[in-house]
Design goal:
The complex is a heterotrimer of chains A (495), B (412) and C (276). Chain A has 495 residues and is of the alpha+beta class. Helix content of chain A is 49%, strand content 12%. Chain A has 4 domains: 31-118, Arc Repressor Mutant, subunit A, CATH 1.10.10.10; 140-291, no CATH class; 303-409, no CATH class; 413-494, Alpha-Beta Plaits (2-Layer Sandwich). The longest helix of chain A has 22 residues, at 455-476. With 412 residues, chain B is α/β, with parallel strands linked by helices. In chain B, strands 3-2-1-4-5-6 form a 6-stranded mixed sheet, sandwiched between helices. Chain B is globular and about 70 Å long. Chain B starts with a helix and ends in a 5-residue tail after the last helix. Chain C has 10 helices and 9 strands. A 6-stranded mixed sheet of chain C has the order 3-2-1-4-5-6, with helices on both faces. The longest helix of chain C has 19 residues, at 97-115. By secondary structure, chain C is of the alpha/beta class. Chain C starts with 14 loop residues before the first strand and ends in a 10-residue tail after the last strand. The chains are: A alpha+beta (495), B alpha/beta (412), C alpha/beta (276). The interface between B and C is large, with 65 and 62 residues. Strand 7 of chain B pairs antiparallel with strand 9 of chain C. Chain B: Keywords: DNA damage, DNA repair, Metal-binding, Nucleus, Transcription, Transcription regulation, Zinc, Zinc-finger. Chain B: It is found in: Nucleus. Chain B: GO terms for molecular function: zinc ion binding.
Amino acid sequence: MPTAVTHFKTNIYECLEALPKPTLDQLYKEPATCLAIFRLLPPLARQLVMSLLFTQPISPVNLTQSDLRLWVKNEEEALAKFHEALDKLSKLSIMTTDSSGYIQINSSFRERFQDCLTGGGDHQSFGVSCERPAKDKPDIAFLDRHAMKQWEEILHFMVGTESTRQPSAAVLKVVTRAKLMKEGKDKQLMITNKGFQFLLQDVNTQVWAFLIQYLDIADELLHMNVVEVLNFFFMLGSLELGMDYSVEALTPTQKQLLDDLANFGLAYRRKKGSSRYYPTRLATTLTSGNSAVVSSAVSSSTSTTTGDDGATEQGFIIVETNYKLYAYTESKLQISVLRLFCELQTRFANMVYALITRDSVRKALKHGITANQIISYLTSHAHPQMKKQTPLLPPTVVDQIRLWEMERNRLVATECHLYKEFRNQGDYEMVLRHATNLGFVIWSNAKKRMFSVTEEGHEHVRNYIKKKIAQRKTNGGGEAGSGIGTPNNGSPSVR
Amino acid sequence: MSKQYKQTEEYIDVDDEIQNTAQQTGYSWEEEYKRSWDVLQEDEDGSLKRTVENLQHRMKRKKLFRDTSTIRRGIIRHMFLIIDLSEAMMEKDLRPSRLELTLSYAEQFILEYFDQNPISQLGIIVTKGGIAEKLTDLTGNPMDNIRVLKNKKNTDTDGEPSLQNSLQMARSTLIHVPAHGSREMLIIMGSLTTCDPGDIYDTIDSLVSENIRVSVVGLAAEVQICKLMCKKTKGTYGVVLNEAHFKDLLFEIIPPPPVSAAQNKAELVIMGFPSSVTDSMPSLCACHSKPTTSGYICARCNSKICDLPTDCPVCELTLVSSPHLARSYHHLFPIDNFVEVPWNSAFATHCFSCQMPFPNPTSTSLGARVAPDTSGRYKCNKCNQYFCIDCDVFVHEVIHNCPGCLATTSSH
Amino acid sequence: MNALKDTATVNEDDANLLVLIIDTNPLIWTKSAKSLSLKEALRHLLVFINAHLALKHDNEVAVIASHIGVSKFLYPIPNPSRLSENTDQAVDSNLYQRFKVVNDQVISNMKDLFEDVSTLNSYPDKASSMIAGALSMALCYTNRIMRADEIGHIKPRILIISISPDSPYQYISIMNCIFSAQKLGIPIDVCKVHSEETVFLKQAAHLTGGRYLKLQIPQGFLQFLMITFLPDRFTRNYQCLPGEEKVDFSASCFCHKKMIDIGFLSSIRTVFNLQI
């Protein structure tokens, strides 16, 4: 699922690159953070870091950028990737070139990442587990259901389904801050265009968008340390699904953070003050790029022995070339999302059958959703059977959705002023020439002797005409009369 | 007189009566009508899943049974591929048409043939309008053959095929092949007729006396003369039922055929194994006189050649690289088939080579314990290790090594 | 007879399966203990495995040990029962859980392998190890993983850490494995830690598009592994990796098991003889 991975990666990237260097140095004190940030780098950058990671203790190695360039093939694409890698590494201040031209790896990153790979150090950055075994441990299916319930509550609230409770204050703050909803007429929150777009994205991107907004609030409103917040996020990403972790090892900031995150559905605590917490799938797949939702259709019989995080399929939509859509889901939220841009026809116990029509897509377009978003939603939620065919979605459907979007772009409206009723052709042409030289003319018609001029140009042209009229009066005596041209103010001209 | 002799010798079995007396009598339309959909049956839960799995299992197993005795086989092969380009090939009973399907399968056949028999040679002859035409002579380069097949001019259809002419043409080249190589022909016939200038029985006799093996793949129906020819020359004859069967029949010819007793003198052919070399300065190669930086050095005369396998242009030593030869070894030392393990001795829990867990008797929703038809465990008799069906297929078709025998000490 | 170039179907987002075959012939490791002992080498290898798993969340690894007389999976094994006995706790807060699981299993299974000396004593040829068996098992495992992954998301490769010399008895089996790997597009990399060159493994690397490297500085084992063998199939296309280019394609004679460069080929059974 390349689209999902790139979206959330770019989100976190921008967030991290905006941090100042000392903050990044602080961040690199935790190995879990180093690991998570490492995984965000492009492939060649990761390889460069690994190659240089263990060089220092044996003998200091002084390499310049041109030395490193020898490791890369002499082809255009390879060199482009190489430069991109160096660029990203220096922006995140992991690998920089110092004043004498030598490549340096950030020392705290180097030490901590070495610890991460070798298991050394005393940082307890990968989550301290509880010593006493839990009385009844929730199983993974329960955690999944809990996570989805919490998360969908938030989304249901956004869509406006009646039966949802008011979510917690933190959620409301995040949602308004991210401009996903805004205050409407009666002090109720209404969903915005951006909110609709948000609904169509996949769960990982949504969770990260939330977390990044939360980071903003954390800094300003809640006065939490940004470093601690980020460390906690990345630590959550490295925990193991289904294991319980102790709350005692967390700082006070992180404990408060945990409460808020539990409301989002990233962690489960039996009760408010309980001393252990269980990360859910939403948390453990934060940095992995795997899907955070496991549909019930996927059974674990074909999974390998490497752990439950490997389940990747969340697709449930099948699109046919005759614009029919079959969605194998029972989730009310997904069905509401589908209702945004297609017409539901029938609903079965495990499936919903819908039709993509011009009206339904136009309705979505009116709400501010773009065709690309609809297409990427369909692609990222495509059923695994669809993924086997190339191209993934039928080209007819994709092209038609785009065409319906382009239909709305056939008319472009511009505000302007219309000049008409010129006495004679000469006057018309003179004024037209002047206006064209200044670049203000939008439309002109020589037969009807009319032309239209932009807002800014209106003043200039009017002054010019007045000047000419004054000139004529002084030159030609009483002959010219009024109206070289009468401006018609403020009417929009439609091309 | 010779004809009379022939008639008493081989009674042509027109109605397959001799074959059928052992089975039910009568014609095929008198037998009970087989309904192909009866195979699918629902189990107690109403799901078809187990039936489908069993069917898949059985299909995989069917492909595996093959001859595994270590008999002598001809590794160095010389084969002519004879393609019928008569008007009968424009029939559309095989999609998209017999001719197009034949050409695409012929390409795949050529690639696979050279993959499995790297030191062999192949030539192509086509027959149409009563004559035979040689498209390529015997060559070890698959791309020459494929290029010729892709050329549209060479593959127009016309008139009737001529079996005798094509056999004669191939025979005239094959008799000059040295005795250590096997001589073969593969004919793809779509037509039911042939237009010959002389007595084809004489041609068949001369083929038999020269140890040339002829195999035929028929696309229409069984033709007696083809059947006779193949039987006499110890080749194989098959008529295709559908596209997949066509491919299977073609690919059955790819493994080297067993060598008959008459050809049993084991001649030794001298061959060289050159080493590859890369220079910083280009030097001329001996085969094309082109400057190249990399190449192979002949073991006997030290001249540089570009590509293997080939004959050294200077000292005429046949040069191959050992991987080329090694590709055909697995035909000489085939591994035994694995034996299916019944449920009462099914104790192994995981496949030895891929660690996949074996299925256990499952309980259905009604609580009864139901076992799938097969236990899914297959045993190698030499090393007594258990494998799953995927590993079984993979081992026999791709690797040709038994992992159990190689990874434990019981076989040595 | 061109070496295989990796086709353009490898994407940046593909997961990678690394199958690591470790030659654990104890006799030769004791010989090499002055420069690099097996314990040291294993430590380096575990960090290397962790590095591979760190590159991407969905990277996978499998470890097979090629011993004298037997060849076994060290990871993943179906019933890791000894795990909870040996380790202090199931979760270590200083080590990423995935690394911990792999490391623990590899160490405990390796211990079991060395404690079982019955096969060691009974097997006659103690000079080399069961590389052919390990390669066949590796190929079966990759076959299983590739079948289970229907979208073609996971891309396998094989790395052999070799220390024993070639065994001519295994020539045909190793060549069969090499051709299968070539057909499936799986590159085989070889790192030669000690003793003389192995021609078969060099051919393996050349034919499948992998790299062959002889370890020059034993203490820098990890660094060599990181630079040469860590790049996955996508990154390899853009990097110039160290390795040897010159390959010797001689065959081994069937009767004397010696390497020859001119021989006699029997048309029927391909028996080679030394030219006398």
